[in-house]
Amino acid sequence: QATIYHVGDPAVAHRALIGNADDFLNRPAASFPTSLATWRHGERNDNIATVSYGPQWRVLRCNLTAEILSRLGSLAPLHEEVAQALVADLSARCGGGGDVAVREPITKAVFTLVTRLCFGDIVDDSQRHAIGRVIRDSIVAAGKLSPGFDGSMLSKLANWRGFRRISAVLKRQPKLYLPLIAARSQSQSQLCGGIVHPYVDSLLDLRVPEDNGDASGPGRPLRDGELVGLVFEFLGAATGSTAACLEWTLAHLIDQPETLDKLRVEIDEEADAGGILSSKSLRGGMPYLNAVVLECLRMHPPVPIGRDAKRWTDPDKFRPERFLAGGEAEDIGPAPGPKEIRMMPFGAGHRHCPGVNMGMLHIKCFLAALVHNFDWALSAEDCSSGVDMTEQDGFIKIMKKPLSARVTRRT
Ligand code: HEM
């Protein structure tokens, strides 16, 4: 089994991932659940996270960035639609005002947005439900493998029960994705919500380097196994972390009503001035919203470096003000700068998350809609004890006790 070293010191992380970035061009074999699906019928079918640094990685990553992630400016109508659907769903669940378990509606809303970006408008509710279950099951199953699992025969034997479970889950994917990919290849001219071409269309058009390294021709199309892996990566990467961040943020806002009030003032003012879900508003118009999301990602990141007491004042306190002008972290953004790493929720170095801007935008879009349209308070169950902020160990750090909140529609 591979030995895993956890780096908790930001200076060491900086020296490794920025100073010696070229030594960390590749990930350990099984650090993402997607990597378990790479070998099929003797063929390696990589996605962006699993492929070795080199020409194929560059082509796949550039395609995702150029075709989807750089088109954030045109997402507003889609954001508007999915945020309205979430507001309608929560309104129905809370009635005139009541306790609601928020994880399910939030995850459903994020997943609807992400499946539309991936496949366009061809996915119906039952397909979306089935795909969502496979992704959730695979993330849960991956979280149960021992931390030293590296995909080697020895570690598969040592983890045989967990490995069998995750292999069975991943085998369900081709049956779900391939018919949708085939349908897209028939109707490629349709835009997603009339705005952007879905990710799958770009993958169908893409040519990657030949397996034998011959760079003289145009390259080859992606194999079915690669398409399945890339779709799984896109859906999984963009859903789990976003939904987890939203649930954590609501938990902190309920725990600190004064922070919620301050955020609402900013959001309501922006709404009065013409709309909160435009790309301009979400990207720069609401500094406190940005600070709230950064503070949540600092405290509950997938990569744990944001609570070093030598670098943060009261690191365990939720205090978005630290990210505002004049605060101790006014220059800190979601991705680390070249000089130091104080937090790295989206990773660092050559393999940092390419979806950082899209992830931030999705979180802010849903959060702005939720705070603008609803009052949030402790559920009857949490009234005496407060919100339980315990983290559950796993591939993504989610709340151990799913958040239940008293939700009331604002008039
Ligand atoms: C809150 C949202 C998100 C968080 C917290 C997050 C976090 C991360 C982290 C920590 C990594 C590993 C980085 C490293 O090894 O240094 C990663 C990689 C990756 N993420 Fe994200 N991510 C988010 C959203 C997204 C979105 C929206 C997409 C795109 C659709 C995306 C696509 C990817 C890909 C493709 C990789 C692998 C990159 C490579 O190996 O070159 N992520 N993400």
TrEMBL record:
It is found in: Membrane. The keyword Aminoacyl-tRNA synthetase does not apply. One of its GO terms (molecular function) is heme binding. Its main location: membrane. Heme binds at C353. Its cofactor is heme. It holds the Pfam family p450. Keywords: Heme, Iron, Membrane, Metal-binding, Monooxygenase, Oxidoreductase, Signal, Transmembrane, Transmembrane helix. It is a single-pass membrane protein. It comes from the Eukaryota. GO terms for cellular component: membrane. InterPro entries: Cyt_P450, Cyt_P450_CS, Cyt_P450_E_grp-I, Cyt_P450_sf, Plant_metabolite_P450s. The keyword Disulfide bond does not apply. Belongs to the cytochrome P450 family. This is Cytochrome P450.
